[in-house]
UniProtKB/TrEMBL annotation:
Protein name, per record: Non-lysosomal glucosylceramidase
PANTHER family: BILE ACID BETA-GLUCOSIDASE-RELATED, NON-LYSOSOMAL GLUCOSYLCERAMIDASE
GO biological process: one example: carbohydrate metabolic process
Start and end residues of each Glycosyl-hydrolase family 116 catalytic region domain: 151-514
GO MF, one example: beta-glucosidase activity
Taxonomic superkingdom: Eukaryota
Natural source organism: Cacopsylla melanoneura
SUPFAM superfamilies the UniProt entry points to: Six-hairpin glycosidases (SSF48208)
Cited InterPro entries: 6-hairpin_glycosidase_sf, 6hp_glycosidase-like_sf, GH116_catalytic, Non-lysos_glucosylceramidase
């Protein structure tokens, strides 16, 4: 058939009819009821669609889908090739999927809801506005660049938040990509590594302050790799609420992710090539230490992934990330034989850790931040985020985060943010006051974030708290999938009245942090 281009408002319908002759059966059925023994035939059908060439709104570049390596040509021709390939390989695919899922589905220690969650949340890898392109300038890439072999991969922050590879959120979701498709994770990290040094002089109007700022400054990890309404990969930093070059979490998350990815892939060459960038980023973070404390301070505006929730001074969240980044740099420097850098970052780590504990430890949790604001005592569900990444990376944390502190913190979060919020039926709410009331300082403090809850549950698994982990994550799963019907559209945030924000969101892929923790030996139920 000829390919047709539709006009605006025009629809095309396709019908398929298959005729097959089946010989009549003979005799009677075994039951003696007179039913015929039936002859059976199988009709195999393959439904494929292709859009091998892609342009975004600005039309500055033309991209080819990664699959065009094997299915080239115009759409109709490549669709025919795909259909033939599917019909001759689908049985192998079914067997491979069954083999992959079987250990989890047959594990009697895992709750049944979790077996649904761990596989179904992967919908977002393909349904997140995902693009996977061949690099159009493959010949210009370094021979060791993973994009030369595996292309460029990007997915949206959310169905409503149209920004590709939003890094502060991908940080959570990366457990899925890093575990299942580690080479694609490397491609994404390489893309961000290159963008660290990029400069875009275009002035952007900031929605929050009404001020203007440079779109992309050097030595900063960008918030995202662009909006499909512009030109992704080229016009990065589509986010324009705040100046993200002044965010305190992005550079730190890149460093932490780099080492965590290494512990999965064990690719020393990739780590070695990325290490100089990590050094540049951590030294850039010195400019965020305004008081000379040896640890980053937040600037009194939402300068991190909780972009409605203001942190001031040393915060449990960003301070914990800074400590984790320094610990990862110590490990990387030792692995790569950089003794001077190892000693440098070990000294900085010791100082930062001491300041963190002195300023924030209350005896039962790390308080929200070191300011004297009315919400500085808030109990944050995500305060152990940096610690979780160190556990996932196999770093010895005892000298950094004392085990007794971690134990008390998890007790506090579980009793207050989980069980103290709708009796544990919705997951972990982001913020609670020490008196057991909800922190209503910002919309995000009173939300349950799906990715944060899954990361918290993973921390519980690492600490041998299986029952608490299943209660925490199970309440969230049942709310999303069974009570409000948002399966395959998992939102970023939920509130106590079961309203939600941003359906179809990247961060929920953090559930694979739970899988990684479970696979490392926590198999009692």
């Amino acid at each position: 058939m000829e390919s047709q281009v539709t006009q605006p408002g025009q629809g095309i319908g396709v019908g398929l009819s298959v005729r097959k002759y089946i010989a009549a059966g003979s005799g009677t059925g075994d039951s003696g009821t007179g039913d015929l023994n039936r002859n059976e035939e199988t009709i195999e059908m393959s439904l494929v669609w292709t859009m091998g060439v892609v342009q975004f709104r600005n039309r500055n570049q033309t991209h080819r889908r990664y699959y065009s390596k094997w299915f080239p040509g115009e759409n109709v021709f490549s669709a025919e090739l795909m259909s033939e390939y599917a019909l001759t390989h689908y049985k192998e695919w079914n067997q491979a999927i069954d083999s992959w899922q079987k250990p989890t589905l047959e594990d009697e220690h895992l709750p049944s809801w979790y077996k649904s969650c761990i596989f179904n949340e992967l919908y977002y890898i393909s349904d997140g506005g995902t693009v996977w392109f061949r690099d159009e300038d493959e010949s210009a890439l370094d021979p060791e660049d993973p994009r030369k072999q595996f292309g460029r991969f990007a997915y949206l922050e959310g169905h409503e938040y149209r920004m590709y590879n939003t890094f502060d959120v991908h940080f959570y979701a990366s457990f899925s990509l890093g575990t299942l498709w580690p080479r694609l994770e490397q491609c994404l990290m390489q893309e961000f590594r290159d963008s660290v040094y990029a400069v875009i002089d275009q002035e952007r109007w900031l929605m929050h302050s009404g001020e203007w700022c440079q779109r992309k400054k050097p030595l900063s990890v960008p918030h995202d790799l662009g909006n499909p309404e512009e030109e992704p990969f080229e016009l990065i930093n589509a986010y324009n609420i705040y100046d993200v070059s002044d965010w305190k979490d992005l550079n730190l998350k890149f460093i932490i992710s780099l080492y965590r990815d290494y512990t999965v892939s064990h690719d020393v060459g990739f780590l070695s090539r990325m290490f100089p960038c990590a050094l540049d980023l951590i030294r850039k973070c010195d400019s965020f230490d305004k008081q000379g404390l040896g640890i980053v301070q937040n600037g009194g505006f939402p300068d991190q992934t909780f972009d409605c929730w203001t942190m001031t001074g040393v915060s449990a969240y960003c301070g914990g990330l800074h400590i984790a980044a320094l610990a990862c740099l110590v490990e990387m420097a030792a692995l790569l034989g950089h003794e001077d850098e190892k000693q440098e970052f070990q000294t900085k780590l010791t100082k930062a850790s001491q300041v963190y504990h002195d300023l924030l430890w209350t005896g039962s949790y790390y308080r929200f931040d070191s300011s004297h604001s009315k919400h500085s005592q808030s109990i944050m569900a995500d305060q152990l985020c940096g610690y979780l990444f160190l556990k996932a990376s196999g770093v010895n944390t005892q000298a950094i985060f004392p085990a007794a502190h971690i134990d008390k913190t998890l007790d506090t979060i579980f009793s207050t943010n989980v069980k103290g919020f709708h009796l544990g039926s919705m997951g972990a709410v982001n913020g609670m006051n020490p008196d057991g009331t909800l922190d209503r300082f910002a919309i995000q403090s009173e939300e349950v974030w799906t990715g944060v809850t899954y990361l918290l549950a993973a921390t519980m698994l690492y600490e041998g708290r299986q029952d608490q982990a299943w209660v925490t994550a199970g309440g969230l799963y049942r709310t999303v999938y069974e009570r409000i019907g948002l399966g395959f559209e998992t939102p970023e945030g939920l509130t106590g009245d079961r309203t939600y924000r941003s359906g179809g969101y990247m961060r929920a892929l953090a559930v694979y942090a739970m899988q990684q923790a479970y696979n490392k030996g926590n198999k009692s139920h």
